[in-house]
Description:
By secondary structure, the chain is α/β, with parallel strands linked by helices. It is built from twelve helices and ten strands.
Amino acid sequence: MRVDVMTALVSFERVFEVLDLEPLVREAPDPVDLPDQAVSVDLDDVTFRYPSAAEVSLASLEQGAGDRLGGSDVLRGVTFHVGPGSLVALVGPSGAGKTTITSLVARLYDPTSGTVRLGGVDLREASNRSLREVVGMVTQEAQLFHDTIRANLSYARPEATDAELWEALRAAQVATLVESLPEGLDTVVGDRGHRLSGGEKQRLAIARLLLKGPGLVILDEATAHLDSESEVAVQRALDSALAGRTALVIAHRLSTVRGADLILVVDEGRIVEQGRHSELLAAGGLYAELYRTQFSEQPTPAAG
Length: 304
Ligand SMILES: Nc1ncnc2c1ncn2[C@@H]1O[C@H](COP(=O)(O)OP(=O)(O)OP(=O)(O)O)[C@@H](O)[C@H]1O
Ligand SMILES: [Mg+2]
């Protein structure tokens, strides 16, 4: 008995430690709802450094995490404006801070200094509920739950009908794939279920995004492991996913950068250049160099 009680007490300590952990991002006492539409995105002189391991982790659950350093500023003086409904491409070398910028826009972290505004509202004043309604994210490695395709899609909008699910699948260019599966929408996917390719998973994630219909889309494009057929399919899926929304795309594909209303070139935590494809190419700076090294081997799409 005594051993059991002592063991239980240790477990309780850990449970309370988790319950007591202060979240990094807190909702304001009187939160404002963000407009439910294609919002503008403004970063104003944003500086950011990742919290140190001590600030985010639980001492008793993490061994050896303490030697991970908080580090230095990852973003410095980042300022840009994105109008509602525009498509913005973020480009830059690896480790430049592109993913970090998108994490701040989705308020996964608050900036160390400066402000992030969606539709003119400072995210520190926005309600969590409206923030989650407005922002939709598709990450580079799309995650699916070990569950049916139906369940993986409909948690974005539980009241969606089968007809709406199929419509989203068609727009995301994966309907043919799902139709060909023996159990259709009820096929179990994920690590231990039916294995889908990276491109197929990303298109399912896009279908989920279409069901949700957010005003702001954040997309980390899959790096070039797609064959040219699924490349065309993903491009079509994106065209429908991005229509009428504000989009922030971490672009690895030439077709996205060329079509963007604004290209932000990120290097070492700063926006070093911004403009459209032809302007930046003519300027002969970092973008022109990235264009030569990263994008030029890709085939130019006929429509530009
Ligand atoms: N969770 C984290 N904790 C501490 N430092 C981080 C964390 N995530 C990223 N960093 C650091 O922040 C910097 C910017 O990283 P980020 O992921 O934003 O780069 P990126 O431009 O998206 O690069 P890539 O093109 O390789 O995806 C890097 O130096 C990285 O090591
Ligand atoms: Mg990244």
